[in-house]
Design a protein that fits this description.
Elements lengths: L1 H14 L1 E3 L7 E12 L14 H13 L5 H5 L6 H9 L12 H7 L1 H20 L1 H7 L6 H7 E2 L5 E2 L1 H11 L7 E3 L15 E9 L2 E12 L3 H20 L2 E15 L3 H8 L8 E4 L14 E4 L14
Parallel strand pairs: 7-8
Antiparallel strand pairs: 1-2, 2-8, 3-4, 5-6, 6-7, 9-10
Helix pairs in contact: 1-11, 2-8, 2-10, 5-6, 6-7
């Protein structure tokens, strides 16, 4: 896995066009790229830097719950969605603290501001955890992934559970070409804190093995893509276990694949590291339904990696 990812990063680093972007950070970008990972060969998690698998597990279980409020994530010490909820809060009339305009960019350039920003965000997260009313109002991110996966609103007001539907179809008609789950709902996009980057995935069964292909419209190569690969590989394992199949491939198809310009030093450092062997995924209680699985039921065996590499997130 690590080789495919490093080849991908090197390709964008060397061939990517410099472009402006929504965050104002700037990127090196290519359009259209695909990677394939044989899940029989090991679990595709990066070994050239430490990837926090606990965060991947809790985020995916959050999606599968149909949840869109960061309170569940914070209860599992997962802060990967904090900035988008915080951004909504500081734009509200209830926020009366220091000016947080463009906090993502300013925090990278101004140490004094970054200290104030971190204090404000920490207080925000504490309020989400201890104040249920505050969490209900400002922990919500709109109808993002979990809502679309489990509670898609149909044209006639019906609620469609795409995950349950695709599981049912896999059990009854595994050769179906309609094993598709979409997170991109044009009606809801304007009210989402962040429109879905991983927009659509499809399952495919052959020789008793379940494969999954993801189409991702936008991919942050250094910070996001390692999470995306591991998350959808884990989802494939969980769905395969649910329907009594082995795992096949995870195919990752990407639209706008980009390296942020403030991640170039970090990706160069990673490209100079030698990969380790891939770990193995282990489900401690394979009899548990995908809707009952807890984070502690999922573990990686023999995960060895180089140390993590920090980089700023573009909001």
């Amino acid at each position: 896995m690590t080789k495919q990812y490093l080849d991908f990063a090197r390709h964008v680093l060397e061939q990517g066009a410099v472009k402006d972007d929504r965050t104002g950070t700037g990127t090196k970008s290519v359009f259209g790229y695909q990677m394939r990972f044989d899940l029989q060969e090991g679990f595709p998690i990066l070994t050239t830097k430490r990837v926090p698998f606990g965060l991947i597990k809790s985020e995916l279980l959050w999606f599968l719950r149909g949840d869109t409020n960061i309170r569940f994530l914070l209860q599992h010490n997962n802060h990967i969605w904090d900035e988008w909820a915080f951004e909504r809060y500081i734009k509200s009339s209830d926020y009366t603290g220091p000016d947080m305009t463009n906090f993502g960019i300013r925090a990278q350039k101004d140490e004094d501001f970054n200290r104030i920003y971190q204090e404000q965000k920490l207080q925000f997260c504490e309020n989400i955890l201890v104040d249920e009313e505050f969490a209900e109002k400002y922990g919500e991110l709109g109808n993002i992934y979990g809502s679309q996966w489990r509670h898609w609103q149909g044209a006639n007001g019906e609620v469609i559970d795409q995950i349950k539907d695709v599981i049912a179809t896999l059990k009854t008609n595994p050769d179906s070409r309609r094993l598709v789950v979409s997170a991109w709902n044009p009606v809801d996009v304007p009210t989402m804190a962040l429109p879905p980057c991983h927009t659509l995935f499809q399952f495919y069964v052959v020789d008793g093995k379940l494969s999954c292909q993801l189409y991702q419209r936008s991919a942050d190569i250094f910070l996001g893509v390692p999470f995306n690969i591991a998350s959808y590989a884990l989802l494939t394992h969980l769905i395969a276990n649910e329907v009594g199949l082995e795992v096949g491939e995870f195919i990752h198809t990407i639209g706008d694949a980009h390296l942020y310009l403030n991640h170039l030093e970090q990706i160069e450092r990673q490209l100079n590291r030698e990969p380790y062997e891939l770990p193995q995924l282990h489900l401690k209680d394979p009899e548990k339904s995908i809707f009952e699985v807890e984070s502690e039921d999922i573990e990686l065996l023999h995960y060895q990696s180089h140390p993590g590499i920090k980089a700023p997130i573009a909001v």
